[in-house]
Specification:
The chain has about 230 residues and is an all-beta fold. It has one domain: Immunoglobulin-like. Helix content is about 0%, strand content about 40%. β7 and β8 form a beta hairpin.
Length: about 230
């Protein structure tokens, strides 16, 4: 007779019990963050609410053959975002993980897995310009092609109560990105804010989403298209 107590499922975060698959809409104006704005129809679902964790920011996402784009709005802040180019992992901002092959049954990243960070400030000589960079994925079997920061594009608008961040990863920075042949992506994000906390997508910090692709959600790139914005 075993002395091991059965695991109480009520102690586990509910998101653990689901494999999420989410449609992402196409937008034909994604050549640069200067040329797009994503409306409510591009909002990603609030999966963290399944764990009883209300979200403090809205994250929107779109795709096109040119690449992937995100728009993040954080409200309710009393201090400017804390961002340091020497401490990217600790800075307020958005990190995204993208697997262009959607190999969601493996535990170590391949060369098709990418990790990018986008910050609303921290760049430039005065540290007040938005910035973006590539980060390595721990324990990866093979790293993605190195991406120079200038290949990633970002802009931001900082207000007294928060900020909006626009970010764009072009197809050239996403090894294996081919929506016509590979309409599924592995994906998750983490939004860090020293005032508001941590907001994640597919699973929470109880799981190694930073390095394990099996913790990521599946995205389906849907063919519906929006017109490019007026310039």
């Amino acid at each position: 007779m075993s002395d091991v107590e059965p695991l109480d499922a009520s102690l586990l975060p509910p998101r653990q019990f689901f494999r999420f698959s989410v449609d992402v809409a196409r937008h034909d104006g994604l050549d640069s963050p200067k040329g797009f704005a994503l409306d409510e129809s591009y909002a990603l679902p609030s999966l963290a609410e399944l764990d009883g964790r209300p979200e403090f920011a809205q994250v929107r996402m779109a795709w096109s053959p040119a690449g992937l784009a995100w728009q993040v709005t954080v409200e309710g802040k009393k201090q400017p975002p804390w961002c340091r180019d020497s401490r990217l992992d600790d800075s307020d901002g958005l990190q995204v993980w993208v697997d262009t092959r959607a190999t969601l049954n493996v535990h170590r990243a391949s060369r098709f897995c990418h990790r990018f960070i986008f910050l609303p400030r921290g760049g430039g000589s005065g540290g007040d310009q938005p910035m973006a960079d590539q980060l390595l994925i721990n324990r990866a079997r093979e790293n993605a092609r190195p991406v120079r920061p200038r290949e990633l594009v970002t802009r931001s608008k900082i207000t007294a109560s928060g900020y909006t961040l626009w970010a764009f990863a072009p197809a050239g920075a996403l090894g294996g990105y081919d929506p016509a042949q590979q309409p599924r992506l592995g994906f998750t994000y983490a939004l860090l804010d020293r005032e508001r906390g941590l907001q994640t997508f597919s699973v929470g910090p109880e799981f190694p989403y930073e390095e394990d692709p099996s913790c990521w959600a599946e995205l389906r790139v849907a063919e519906q298209s929006s017109p490019p914005p007026e310039r």
